[in-house]
Design brief:
This protein is mainly α. The chain has one domain. The protein is built from eight helices and no strands. The chain starts with a helix and ends with a helix.
C-alpha cells in the first residue's frame, strides 16, 4: 500500500479541516457545516491511532456544531451576533470546567484504555471542549485556546505518526494567531 493510500482518510480530514479553518477565520456560518463533516472523518483517524479522547471529542463536536449552527442562525435573524470578550465570570468557570474535564478524561484514559499519551490527549480534549463552546458564543479568546491546543496537537500527531493531521494542526496554529488579529479587527469595527 502506498503512503498516500495508507493516509487517504487523513487527507480527506485535512481538506475538510482547511475549509473549516477558512470559514472560522472569516466568522462565517459555513464553519458549522464543516464542523459537522470533519468529526465523522476524524473519528476514524483517531480511533485507529489509539487517541481515544480525541475520538470521543468528535462526538461532542457533532453536538456542539448543531448548537453553534443554531446559535449563529438565531443571531443572524437578530442582526448577527457580535464578536466579544468572554465575561470574567465565564472565563473563570471555563477554566474550572476545563480542569475538571481534563482530570476526568485523564482518569478514564489512564484506567480503562491502552493510551500511551493520556495526559496530552485529555488536555487537548478538555481545552477543545471549552474552545468550541467559546467559538459558538463568538468569544475572541477562543483563538488563544486553539493556539495552545493546535501547538500541542502538532507534537502529539507527529509522535502518533499521523502526519497529515500534524500538518493540518501546524496550519491551524499559525492561522489561529492571524484569526485572533482578524476577529479583533472585526470586533473593533462593530463599535
Amino acid at each position: 500500500m502506498t503512503f498516500l493510500a495508507e493516509h487517504a482518510i487523513e487527507i480527506i480530514g485535512l481538506v475538510l479541516g482547511l475549509f473549516y479553518l477558512y470559514f472560522e477565520y472569516h466568522a462565517s456560518i459555513w464553519v458549522w457545516l464543516f464542523s459537522l463533516l470533519m468529526p465523522m472523518v476524524s473519528m476514524i483517524v483517531y480511533f485507529d491511532a489509539g487517541l481515544y479522547a480525541d475520538f470521543s471529542i468528535n462526538i461532542y463536536y457533532l453536538l456542539a456544531s448543531a448548537y453553534g449552527l443554531a446559535r449563529w442562525r438565531g443571531n443572524k435573524r437578530r442582526k448577527g451576533a457580535s464578536i466579544s470578550h468572554i465575561p470574567p465570570a465565564f472565563a473563570l468557570m471555563s477554566m474550572a470546567a476545563m480542569l475538571v474535564i481534563w482530570l476526568g478524561i485523564y482518569l478514564v484514559l489512564h484506567s480503562f484504555t491502552n493510551s500511551n499519551v493520556p495526559v496530552m490527549d485529555s488536555l487537548t480534549t478538555a481545552l477543545s471542549i471549552v474552545g468550541t463552546w467559546m467559538l459558538a458564543r463568538k468569544y475572541i479568546e477562543q483563538w488563544a485556546v486553539w493556539i495552545v491546543v493546535d501547538a500541542i496537537c502538532v507534537a502529539l500527531y507527529i509522535y502518533k505518526e499521523i502526519p497529515f493531521y500534524a500538518v493540518l494542526y501546524a496550519v491551524y496554529t499559525v492561522v489561529a494567531v492571524f484569526g485572533y488579529r482578524k476577529w479583533r479587527a472585526m470586533m473593533s469595527a462593530q463599535t
